[in-house]
Design brief:
Rossmann fold; 6 strands; 9% strand
């Protein structure tokens, strides 16, 4: 039914409900709007404008985002503030290991960084996965030390709704979507389903991941194939390519 579908609890359509949600929870100091440059960010930014609420938008700079995202934000959203929380990202890869689906330490310093002690607008949607299907429109951040309240105005939007909203309001979006990308964000994210396309489009970032694999392999060899706790490693990789292929194969 798209954006015209009514919310059972309120009788409002999806857009009106989102706007009402933002207006209801508007804090005195205004919202912190988490802006990644993807389609969901474009939607929540416009909804915040339509709601007439006070907000400041922030992009947590990711060293592994597509360069096209950088250009898009600079050209189309010059008011977005660029916050750097991951200056030593590659050193952290050397220390913590490659991000995995079950161990995505990278999200803490990139996607979840920023907005401490603020009410934060985020673009999470239930349609994106099992974990997000359990999320609420308003709730405290999991990391209580950050003291953040999360507001999810598009939680009930699916992909069709997002594109209906973007095109219906003639909003700008990154051209990579028109070239076949379904999602934009960290290149070679453990949840990526289109590894070959990302490798082809973003060779420099791909090479940085390969180099990181090489450093990790050499570290493990130097320890006699023991992990940092002194236990035997499960996989005895000889080359960076072996580790990289294993990692991108999501084994």
């Amino acid at each position: 039914m798209g954006l015209e579908q009514l919310e059972m609890e309120t009788g409002l359509n999806k857009v009106d409900f989102s706007i009402k949600l933002l207006q209801t929870w508007e804090p005195k100091d205004g919202y912190y709007l988490a802006f990644s440059g993807g389609k969901d960010s474009v939607a929540i930014y416009d909804l915040a404008v339509k709601a007439g609420v006070k907000f400041d938008a922030h992009y947590c700079v990711s060293p592994i985002d597509p360069p096209q995202i950088y250009s898009f934000i600079k050209e189309q959203y010059p008011d977005v503030q660029w916050d750097i929380h991951a200056r030593n990202f590659w050193k952290l890869v050397d220390k913590k290991g490659l991000p995995m689906r079950q161990r995505r330490w990278c999200c803490e310093i990139i996607k979840e960084a920023g907005g401490e002690n603020r009410t934060v607008i985020v673009g999470n949607r239930r349609a994106e996965g099992a974990n997000r299907s359990k999320q609420c429109y308003v709730e405290n951040a999991r990391n209580k030390k950050l003291n953040k309240i999360l507001i999810r105005p598009i939680l009930n939007f699916d992909d069709f709704d997002i594109w209906q909203y973007i095109r219906g309001n003639e909003l700008p979006y990154c051209f990579l979507y028109d070239e076949g990308f379904k999602r934009l964000g960290c290149v070679l994210c453990p949840f990526s389903r289109d590894i070959e396309r990302e490798e082809r489009y973003f060779p420099k970032i791909t090479n940085l991941w390969r180099l990181a694999c090489g450093r990790l392999v050499e570290q493990t060899k130097a320890r006699g194939y023991l992990d940092k706790r002194g236990n035997p490693v499960k996989n005895k990789f000889e080359t960076k390519d072996e580790m990289y292929d294993w990692w991108t194969g999501r084994k």
